[in-house]
Amino acid sequence: MSGMPAADAAAPLTDRRIILSAEGLSKHYGQVTALDDVSLAIGEGEIVALVGDNGAGKSTMISILTGLVQPDAGVLRLDGEEVLIESPRHAQELGIATVFQNLALVNQREVAANLFLGREPTKFGFIVDRRRMVEQAAEAVQRLRVGLPNVRALAGDLSGGQRQAVAVARAIVGGGRVLLMDEPTAALGVRETRRVIEFVKELRAQGMSILLISHNMQDVFELADRVVIFRQGKKVGERVISETSMDEVVGLIVGNSYGSEA
Ligand SMILES: Nc1ncnc2c1ncn2[C@@H]1O[C@H](COP(=O)(O)OP(=O)(O)OP(=O)(O)O)[C@@H](O)[C@H]1O
Ligand SMILES: [Mg+2]
Questions:
Q1: Which among 30, 35, 56, 238 counts the fewest CB atoms within 10 Å?
Q2: Residue 258 resides in a domain
Q3: Cβ contacts of residue 255 below 8 Å, gap of 6+?
Q4: Which atom of ligand 1 is nearest to the CA of 57?
């Protein structure tokens, strides 16, 4: 069906400069429609929450924005210019950093090494420059203002919240200005969740644009400037956080077809 676009498909509810946007994205996996003509935009220094029930298409959205998956239809724009994001490496080069839910840190290696996996500073073009690596790692951790014991600590010895911090630090060490986070606090305890929330705020204060997937409405309402709601692969709503309520957002998430398996 072509027809009129949904009322809130095109213009995001923000007056900020749009850094990254997706327009009319669709993605099918065989018979499954993971995304159906969805649009979403992230403004400068803004936190946009992406919410929806299991299977709504949230991770698929992030996979497309980070170049892991190519959409069947739709366009992506960075600073208004159309881009094809070919791979996660390409996304990183474009300044789009991603923190996936399964963090993939290498436990047997120190924090500093985990920050650079595959992108270590080198001397003579091929030897890892350990001193520079540790310096740059310490700088990134400092910038995040989270309590990491020491960049020489083994990743395997860190708590969940600290691991999350390392994953975010790794994302921004590459010069990212857009950060995509898929359920950053899902596996964390209360105190660690607090810490992650505080450093996400800190990143926004530093001008970072953030897309945050979360099932936790408390986190969404504390952090986000705007919320976008997906249901069964479709965008069913977008709200400015200060103009909505948890009840309204939850209502949009579950919709009328709650319980159906379609
Ligand atoms: N690689 C894949 N192959 C086949 N189907 C897929 C694939 N990835 C996602 N899907 C399907 O696409 C739909 C959307 O999945 P997606 O992972 O984007 O949901 P989600 O909103 O992130 O859910 P959750 O909250 O459970 O993480 C689901 O029906 C899922 O089964
Ligand atoms: Mg997901």
A1: 30
A2: no
A3: 231, 236
A4: 18
Closest residue to atom 22 of ligand 1, CA basis: 59
Q: What is the pLDDT of residues 181-194, one digit of tens each?
A: 988 877 777 877 88
Range with the poorest average pLDDT among 97-106, 116-125, 162-171, 204-213:
97-106
Exposed / middle / buried, residue 215 (Cβ in 10 Å: 0-12, 13-18, 19+): middle
Taking Cα atoms as reference points, which of 255, 223, 260, 247 lies closest to residue 50? 223
Ligand 1 centre distance from Cα of residue 256 (Å): 21
Take atom 12 of ligand 1 and give the residue whose Cα is closest. 34
Q: Which of 25, 27, 29, 33 to mutate to test the pocket of ligand 1 (most atoms within 8 A of CB)?
A: 29
Q: In the numeric block, which tokens belong to residue 221?
A: 């309402």
Average pLDDT over residues 158-174: 77
| Segment among 30-44, 114-128, 135-149 with least mean pLDDT | 135-149
Q: Determine the distance separating the centroid of ligand 1 and the alpha carbon of 57, expressed in angstroms.
A: 6
CA of 47 to the centre of ligand 2 (A): 18
Per residue in 45-79, pLDDT tens? Answer: 999 999 999 999 999 999 999 999 999 999 999 99
Whether residue 10 is contained in a domain is answered as no
The number of distinct structural domains making up the chain is: 1
Domain of 90 in residue numbering reads as: 18-253
Cβ neighbours of 160 (radius 10 Å)? 17
The answer to whether position 1 is within a domain reads no
Q: What is the CATH number of the domain that holds 220?
A: 3.40.50.300
| Average confidence score pLDDT of the chain | 85
The alpha carbon of 209 and the centre of ligand 1 are apart by a number of angstroms equal to 24
| 99 vs 69: CA distance, rounded Å | 16
Q: Does 4 reside within a domain?
A: no
Ligand 1 binding pocket includes 232 (Cβ within 6 Å):
no
Q: Please tell me the predicted confidence (pLDDT) of residue 256.
A: 63
